[in-house]
Amino acid sequence: MSAAKTGRTRQAPARKRDRAPDAVRPGEKPRRGGSPKASEAANPPENAASPKSGRRARMLTALGLAAERMNVVPAGPVVWSAGDRAVGRPTDRADGRRTWLRLQASPVAEANGEQWQGNKTAEFAFGALGGHRPRLLGLLDWVDAATRAGGQGAKPDDGTVDKVAYRAELTEYVRDLVCSPTPVAHGPHDLPDAWWDGLHAALDAVGEARTQRVTTRQEVVDRLVPEYLGVRAPTLRTMVPVHGDLHWANVTRDTPCLLDWERWGRAPLGYDAAMLHAHSLLVPGLASRVRGEFPVLDSADGRIAELVVTAELLHALRDGGDPEAEHALRAQARRLTEPRRRSVRVHLPGPARPMTTVSDSRL
Fold it and tell me: Do 117 and 136 contact (CB within 8 A), yes or no?
């Protein structure tokens, strides 16, 4: 994809050279290499009899089985994804190479969707992406039976168990620190121009991919935008391949390296830029830098991308989350949906009448 199409021409805001206070410090818990995001930090202990505890126990057993079958040994603490959809940990191969082992679980009927296949298809499509993506080194699939709540050691075929699909992915371990321990930035990131150039190079390469994968679908936009923004849903017109989950816990400070490829696919032009900007709203200087790096956000296509991303993120926060982030997103929603006023020069009838300026609030 050309720089002109992605709107890469950048403004050059003044920058300091301080280390970003949001960056993860040395000595903290290992990050994803596939290293896990901060949202994947271990949760507080649960009641041992709770369904959540039972699910975790099964997934930890499966993670251990995957390590054994893939000939790696644990080399760091376990971390959990939001909602316990996945679990991972650092591992070492027999040759001493550090890796990351990630395991996800899903009901069998849901185990072949686009997110389930995201890392695998990204490996075929991009490989190392010029050093901006951790390579997938191995993959293991299997199906097991999990007793339903209330079941008492039932056999797999007696109707009281659910078939559960597991996928284990072994990836390169990324030693770079992620930009933030949370997806939302809570402090400035004074990243050099070379970092932004690397990010643009990675996203440009993604934009050149040929894929039928879809990150954002029109029918979902038709539902979420009216529900959360109170305006008519836009028509998705310029669809391009994107990373799909570009936030500050999914990109590292040095290379940069992009993590978490489950959602990559086709989305509105400007979607990745809109996603990064939405996760920068609590830091005005950073949000301004993102907009300067991605002028596409100030175009008609960019406004569509921002409407979609804002609605999606508000939907994700429907059950609670970061109150500050939600407040910033709602302010952004008002900015995007308020009538855009423009001046129109009107010549009133009659002799020698002056030109008069009126305001037109139509979108």
Answer: no
